[in-house]
Amino acid sequence: MNLSVAIPSSSLSDESLKIDKTRKISVLARACSIFKVGTIYVYAEGDSKQDGALLAMILRYLDTPQFLRRRLFPKMNDLKFAGVLHPLRIPSHSTPADPKKIKKGDARDGVVVGAKGRRFVDVGINQLVPFYDKVPIGKRVTVQFKEGYPNLAVKEITRIQAPNYWGYAVKERAGLYQLLSEWKGDTIITSRAGKPATAEQIARYTKSEHGTLLVFGSPEKGVRDILGSRTKNLQNAKTLNFFPGQATQTVRLEEALLGVLSIINSHSV
């Protein structure tokens, strides 16, 4: 199933300390990785530009294999509490550093680097691998080995072409309505005001050939409150309640994300 999620830039508004914001982002990233989410959209909502930037940056940091982080993320205050982040431990992160263990067909993430007028890719081993695609230096790429050790040769591939789940992409949008207007697949709006999600309804999306976008609101506003009257203009969007009869006044975003993804996953296996 091709799943994407949309969360607001105000997702961290219920946390006052940066360390707690960092912990919350870690939980969100883990939930998306457990259930193989392909893209996390962070849409602008309210006066939360700074939190939105922190959210997107740490999500990208967590998706980046540890051996590439020093090249891609300079020291910055927003990563002050990176030590509390839980590693994703997805296949793209669990790769051997010993080049002798690399076989034909293996996939790796790397960073394009320049040396002696040529391009190479740093894939976290003790040698650079020649790279002949016209990709800007400093860009992160996913590559597949055409030849294993000792004649290491690679080609660029997409994450979808990787043999296993290869992490999520993070994309930012100026607003939720803009995101939903450009989305071409199916859309599920998660809301307490929606009809209870049934196995039959969920099965429709798990069996769909189109991508499905799960939309979540903020700690202060539900999706319908964020969209206002424009909700009725949406195409291919269904509003569902995944927690009918909830005893708590609210369901926190990290709880909603993990719960909704778990429910959908249970109907797709």
The DSSP helix count reads 7
Order of neighbouring strands in the sheet with most strands: 8-2-1-10-9-11
- Biggest sheet overview: 6 strands, parallel
Termini Cα gap:
10 Å
| Poorly predicted segments | none
Estimate the helix proportion, in percent. Answer: 25-40%
Order of helices and strands: EHEHHEEEEEEHEHEHEH
Please tell me what the overall shape is. Answer: globular
Strand content: 15-25%
**What is the mean predicted local confidence, pLDDT?**
92
What this model shows, in words?
This protein is 26% helix and 24% strand. The chain is α/β, with parallel strands linked by helices and 269 residues long. The chain has a 6-stranded parallel sheet. Strands 5-4-3-6-7 form a 5-stranded antiparallel sheet, with no helix packed on it. Strand 1, helix 1 and strand 2 form a beta-alpha-beta unit. Helix 1 crosses helix 2 (49-63) and helix 1 (18-34) packs parallel to helix 7 (253-266). The mean pLDDT is 92.
Summary tags:
five-stranded antiparallel beta sheet; 7 helices; six-stranded parallel beta sheet; 269 residues; alpha/beta; single chain
In terms of topology, how is this protein built?
Blueprint: E1 3-8, H1 18-34, E2 39-43, H2 49-63, H3 69-72, E3 107-115, E4 118-122, E5 129-130, E6 140-147, E7 153-157, E8 169-173, H4 176-182, E9 186-196, H5 199-206, E10 212-215, H6 223-227, E11 237-241, H7 253-266
Parallel strand pairs: 1-2, 1-10, 2-8, 9-10, 9-11
Antiparallel strand pairs: 3-4, 3-6, 4-5, 6-7
